[in-house]
Structures are given as C-alpha cells and as structure tokens.
Specification:
The strands form three sheets. The protein has an eight-stranded mixed barrel, surrounded by five helices. The N terminus is likely disordered. It has two domains: 161 residues, Alpha-Beta Plaits (2-Layer Sandwich), CATH 3.30.70.270; 270 residues, Alpha-Beta Barrel (TIM Barrel), CATH 3.20.20.450. The chain starts with 5 loop residues before the first helix and ends with a strand. By secondary structure, it is of the alpha/beta class. The radius of gyration is 26 Å and the shape is elongated. The structure holds ligand C2E and magnesium ion (MG) (2 copies). The site of one magnesium ion (MG) has 4 residues, from loops.
Length: 444
Amino acid sequence: MTGDTSERSEPRVSPSIRFIERYLKKREPAEIMSLLLVQIDSFNRVATTFGTQASRDACEDYAETLRMLLPQGSHVIRLSERRFALLMTPDSEAVVTDLAEIIAEAHQPRIEVQDSSFSVDVKLGAAMCPLHADDALTLFRRAELALQTARDNDESFAVYQPNATMHQATKWKLESDLKGAIANGEIEVHYQPKVELATDSVCGVEALVRWRTKDGRAISPDNFISIAERTGDIIDLTWSVFDSVLESVQSWGTLKPSFGLAINVSPQVANHSEFCVRLQALNEKLLKFDIKLAVELTEDSLLKSDSRSMANLHKIRELGVDLSIDDFGKGYSSLTYLKQVPATEIKIDKRFIETIGVDETDQQIVKAIFDLAHALDMRVVAEGVDSEENQDMVTALGCDIAQGFLIARPMHGDDFVEWFNNYGSNPLEIEELNDRGSEQIYGF
Ligand code: C2E
Ligand code: MG
Ligand code: MG
C-alpha cells in the first residue's frame, strides 16, 4: 500500500487523554499535577465468583469512595470497569504517596454479598507533571509503567522511576523469550553446598536455577522468577528443574547417607494439581541414591497460606519430603504460624547474616529465632555466610548448617562431585575449584 502514512501513525487520542491534556494546560508554573492510576486487581475473580452485577456494583461504590477521598478540584475518570485515573494538584509528592497508601490500605473496595463482605486488591501507579512528563500522553504512559511495576513487585503502589522504561522493555523481552528458553533447554540448575557446622562436613545442596542464554550469559533467577510466576511459566520451569536435578543426581551417584537436596518452589507450583504426584515420583527416584529431598518455600509465601495450601504442605511431609522456610525474617514474621506450618527447617535470611557481626540487636533476634526453631524441633540454616566472622558468629549462636560464598558459590552439577571430594582436604585446591566452579550471573 502506498500513500502518506504520517497522519495514520499519529496515536489516536482518547477522550480521557484529551481531558488530562486540558487539565494540564491549567497548570501554574510552580504547580505539581499528578496522575494516579488505580486498578482493581482481582476483578475477574470477583466477577466469576459473585457474578458481573455484584462486581459492577462494587466498582460503582468504589468510584464514589475515591471521589470522597480526593481533595477539592480533583477528578476521578472511569477508564474501564476496573480502572480509574485520579487527577489532582497536590502540594508535594508526599501528598500523592500518602493518598495512595490510604487508598490501598484503608479503603480497599469491598464486595457485599448477602451478609458477607470481601475486600478486593487494588494497585496504584503515579506519575507527576512536570517532574516526569509535561504532556498528557507521556504522563499517562508513565503512570501506566508505575502501575505495572507495582503489580510486578506485588506492591500496592509505585511512583514512576525515570529508568523504568528501559527496565520494563528488558522485562518484556525476558518475558517473551522465557517460554522458548524453557522449551529449548536453556534453563540449567546450579548447586550450592551446605555444611553441617558441628562436623564441618558437606550435608547437602540447594538447587538454584539459571537461565543460560544462547550467547552464554547466565541470567539470575531474581530477574525472571517473578516474571515466570506472573506468566504461569513457573510451572514448566519447575518441572524442568525436577528433570535437571534427577539428571545431576544420576551422574553423581550416592555421595553419603541422607545427603540433602533442596529445591525452591513457588506457592502456585506447590498448589498445582500435578505437584505432589511429580514430587513423589522425583523423591522415589532420588531415594535410590540416598538423597533426602527438601522443598524450600519462602516465609512470605507461607504467611499467605490458606487452608488448601496448608493441606498441600502436609502432603509434602507425608511423602517424606522435608519442608524448609526460606528467607526467614525478611518480611514481618508471625511466630504463631511457625506452629501451624509442618516445617523441618528454617533458613535465616541473608540480610540478617550480613549485619550479624555489627548489629547486636540482630544477634539477639537471630539467637531467639534459633532457640525457637530448636524448641519446635526444626533445623536452622544460615544463608549468605560469606566470611569467617559470620560463620563463627552463627556457630556460636547455635546454628546447625551454613550456606554461603565462604563455603562455595553455586556451581554447575558437573563440577560438584570433584568439589565435594576435595572439601576440607586442601584449602588451596578448594580455592581453585571454587574459582573454576564459580559463576558470573547477570542482572539488569
Ligand atoms: P534463595 O532460595 O534464598 O537462594 C539463595 C540465594 O543467595 C542464591 O541466589 C545464592 O546464590 C545467594 N547466595 C548464596 N550465598 C550467598 C552469599 O554468601 N552472599 C550473597 N550475597 N548471596 C549468596 P540466586 O541463585 O540468585 O537465587 C535467588 C533466588 O531465586 C533464590 O533465593 C530463590 O528464591 C529463587 N530461585 C532460585 N531457583 C529457583 C527455582 O528453581 N524456583 C523458584 N521458584 N525460585 C528459585
Ligand atoms: Mg532457597
Ligand atoms: Mg533464601
């Protein structure tokens, strides 16, 4: 087709954008104008559970709540059934942040069905004029990016960050490549050893996934696990970790009695209908090599456990598989849930271990956690042990097992047996092996 395309390539401007443009035009030079996008996140679930009428009524009521919360002269624009744009002229950025917190925490939309009332999640993203943009379309796109960031990080609110566009573009690229990477075998598993402190012997490994791209780079799981969780690719990714682990163990043979092997599992995988069947199959195969399998679930995800996921945790234990609470102490720990979760181990988050040498309060907290775990008959692992000082400190506080760069970085399965056989024999050799087996991981 020929002809002038310049007119056609102009973005179609929606009435909402035109409204925002008119609002921005009224701005005095010293004024800030902010655009806050609000999205009801569990809208589809609400509609399926309670019917479209109930969800529509709830959204109507919610629009009214938003109007009441905003200062005079602000506007609420209904973008779609579950999305709203709030326009206002705040005195400072802090006013926007405070309002977003109030909306997200204290005024969540509620669905009233008969005598029951259910709260629904909202996510908010903000961008400001002139700080982030001075035209309506850019302002809108940037608020949209902030909203996406909030959703990706599972936070209720985010303000646009100038580098978010690049960051988001990289994420989208990873997201679109991930499915292919899983299918093409670009997902590999590395192993980080754990050492029993009382005997200074290697007692197990943690399996940590890496994405080895075609050009040979290893991408850190921190960059793609949350994406995989959002897209649902985490399911196939975990099954491919199961396969890799079995392959590695078959190549290692039996290393020592009850050698531990821990696999990280996201909550949606633990709740997947095939999980227990696949876990059982893997466990039976690993038992032939005298491997004691463990599942690591983060404290954060365990805190959100409902009765169904709690039942799944019990099933894991019934299979004879250990259950470890990962990153313990990272969030707001509720000690009562420790009583309910059938865990066999707690892994103290590495942020505690980093400061344990300098912060006496952290030492006291860690000691109390160790004592409590032992009282509940759980093992304690310190992760992120990267100096002699840290290792001495956690040993003195009563820790059972250490894992960290001091002992070894995660390494390829092919290097593990050699490392294992040399552990403790000759420090120089271990250094060399650590260097060879050590990895370079890329983030963005
Ligand atoms: P995690 O399970 O808490 O694993 C420990 C992380 O700490 C690993 O990062 C490890 O390389 C790093 N680490 C170990 N020792 C040290 C140390 O001394 N200092 C420092 N600074 N870091 C240390 P990695 O491999 O990048 O994994 C990050 C997270 O990704 C894991 O944290 C885990 O939550 C997640 N992950 C890894 N593999 C999987 C998987 O197969 N499935 C799921 N769902 N999540 C996974
Ligand atoms: Mg872990
Ligand atoms: Mg951890």
